[in-house]
Structure formats: C-alpha cells, structure tokens
TrEMBL record:
Molecular function, one GO term: ATP binding
Keyword ATP-binding annotated: yes
The enzyme's E.C. designation: 3.6.1.31
Known catalytic reactions: 1-(5-phospho-beta-D-ribosyl)-ATP + H2O = 1-(5-phospho-beta-D-ribosyl)-5'-AMP + diphosphate + H(+)
GO biological process, one term: L-histidine biosynthetic process
Pathway stated in the Swiss-Prot or TrEMBL entry: Amino-acid biosynthesis; L-histidine biosynthesis; L-histidine from 5-phospho-alpha-D-ribose 1-diphosphate: step 2/9
Originating species: Candidatus Protofrankia californiensis
Listed name of the protein: Phosphoribosyl-ATP pyrophosphatase
C-alpha cells in the first residue's frame, strides 16, 4: 500500500534518477500526449467499472487513474501541494 504522496515521491525520484526498467520513466519519455491518452483511458475504465463491475474493480481502475494523474503532474512540473492547494 502507498499513499498518494508516497507514490509521488517514488515516481519523481525514478524520473530524476532515470531508474532503469521503470515503466514510469518510459511513459514520461514518451511525453504528455501518451500520458494524456492513458489518463483518459483509465478515467473511462473507472466509469465503466463503476457502472458494471463492482467496487473492487473501481478501486483498481482508480488506482491506475491516480497513477497516470501523477505522471501528468511530473510531466508538467507540478507537486502534490500545487494540486492540494486547489482542492
Ligand atoms: N500504480 C502503478 C500503476 N498503475 C498502472 N500502471 C501502469 O499502467 C499500466 C496499466 O495500463 P494498461 O491498460 O496498459 O494495462 P492493463 O493491465 O490492461 O490495465 P487496464 O487498462 O486493463 O486497467 C500497467 O501495465 C502499468 O504499466 C502502473 N505502474 C506503476 N504503478 C506504481 O508506480 C510504481 C513505479 O513503477 P515503475 O515506474 O514501473 O517502476 C510501482 O511500484 C507502482 O506502485
């Protein structure tokens, strides 16, 4: 289990270190167009899971949506605080 902040620190660290084998580094290298498409895909899958598949699947898809949202953040240089301050 990881909190949103813990995951962000992990991903930002991997990006900074360009950790070999990191799928996150690969996705960030592909750029915001690739990341945006995945974000949209996971948002849609979250919606479909909520309509048709039950809470376990919704939790799984939401975890992926949060992950891809963090790659958007890192891609454009935002921190969690930048987002929290607007909630
Ligand atoms: N939480 C995630 C996470 N969620 C989703 N993904 C990626 O996003 C992909 C899911 O989208 P895909 O649709 O391609 O794969 P899928 O299995 O069909 O999933 P669905 O679309 O069907 O839901 C997975 O294959 C992962 O590559 C994630 N990759 C990493 N993390 C976390 O990020 C950390 C760092 O990962 P690396 O950068 O790869 O080291 C990991 O330890 C995890 O905690």
């Amino acid at each position: 289990m990881k909190t949103f902040d813990e995951l962000y620190l992990e991903l930002a660290g991997k990006w900074r270190e360009r950790t070999p084998g990191s799928g996150s580094v690969d996705a960030l290298d592909k750029g915001i167009h690739h990341i945006g498409k995945k974000l949209l895909e996971e948002a849609a899958e979250t919606w479909m899971a909520a309509e048709h598949e039950g809470t376990e699947r919704v939790a799984e898809e939401l975890s992926q949506l949060l992950y891809w949202s963090q790659l958007v953040m890192i891609s454009v240089g935002l921190t969690p605080h930048d987002v929290y301050s607007r909630l």
